[in-house]
Amino acid sequence: MKELIVRGISGAIYVMLLIGSLYAQDALTALLAVFGIVSLAELSKLIRLRSFVQYIIFLLLYSGFWYFSVKNEHVAISDEAIKVLLVVTIFVNLILTKDLFTSKRIPLFNSKKFIVSTFYLTSGFIFLLLIANHAIDSTESQFRPLLLLGGLILVWVNDSAAYFVGKNFGKQKLFPSVSPKKTVEGFLGGLFFACISSYFIATYTNTLGSTSWLILAIIVSVFGTLGDLIESKFKRQAGVKDSGVIMPGHGGLLDRLDSIIFAAPFIYLFLRILSYVS
Q1: Are the C-beta atoms of residues 186 and 160 closer than 8 Å to each other?
Q2: Separation CA 198–CA 195 (nearest Å)
Q3: Using one digit for the tens of pLDDT, what is the confidence trace for 184-202?
Q4: H-only helix segments in the chain
Q5: What dihedral do alpha carbons 81, 83, 85, 90 form, nearest 10°?
């Protein structure tokens, strides 16, 4: 009972910090930066990256994209830089997905550790920032935090539903070598309830249409689950249960953000496609 209370309190603080920061652009920018640094420290420990270079890269890239793409969004070169980062990030994420399915261990030679820390984690936080500052057309306000909130809600619904459906009805293991508790039934349950919740997100956020949010629900469920599995494989290789201890009852911050970090570039890609066709 005590553990459940501690878990509830730390989870509530985490959610309140995220939702509270959505009311101010600078607050959200700062919170994502802090979350990014903490998550990077946890990832560095998992992959045994004993260096400070990854933190310098994070600060330079995060602050650079914030300044040129958010603070001064009319700088033409920023859009080209975003496209390059998007292509490289998605390519690296697909390589990690391939390693998840084809390798007993994700290869982590020294140069790949920096590739992972930069284009798996740092890029993920940059795209979270860009999602919250993305306008579908030029007539809209640039700061649209409800897009990010909707994505987070989809992750929370997917994870919660997958847990409860899998626990009560799960029989077929999804990926037993990496995450023995995940089941196919749990994944389908998470996907189903995420799709249901997408209708309410579309209705009450007044951001995108119901069809767009339905597609985003599928993107979040699929790529969020892959992100969770990839982080689980990093933990299994490191021989630890959690990425950290900063959230009592939950583990590390990376444990809570792994799904949305991995899904973020794919969410942003879909938003960019909507911008072109709308």
Answers
A1: no
A2: 5
A3: 999 999 999 999 999 999 9
A4: 2-21, 25-46, 53-65, 76-102, 110-116, 123-132, 145-169, 184-205, 210-238, 253-277
A5: 180
The amino acid at residue 29 is T
Structural contact between residues 262 and 224, judged by C-beta atoms closer than 8 angstroms: yes
**Is the Cβ–Cβ distance between 47 and 234 less than 8 Å?**
yes
- pLDDT tens for each residue of 137-170: 655 557 889 999 999 999 999 999 999 999 899 8
- Could you tell me which of 191, 192, 187 has the C-alpha nearest to residue 174? 187
Tokens 């261990």 label which residue?
Answer: 105
Encoded tokens for 267 = 């969410």
Please compute the mean of the pLDDT values over residues 105-115 and round it to a whole number: 87
Intra-chain end-to-end CA distance of the chain, in Å: 51
Provide the token pair at 243. 């990425």
Give phi and psi for 251, each to the nearest 5: 105, -135
Sole residue written with tokens 């990376």: 254
Residue pair 104/236 in contact by the 8 Å Cβ criterion: no
The first and second tokens of residue 237, run together, are: 């290789």
List of long-range contacts for 46-51, beta carbons under 8 Å, 24+ apart: 46/234, 46/235, 46/237, 46/238, 46/240, 46/243, 46/254, 47/108, 47/113, 47/116, 47/117, 47/234, 47/238, 48/108, 48/113, 48/238, 49/113, 49/114, 49/117, 51/114
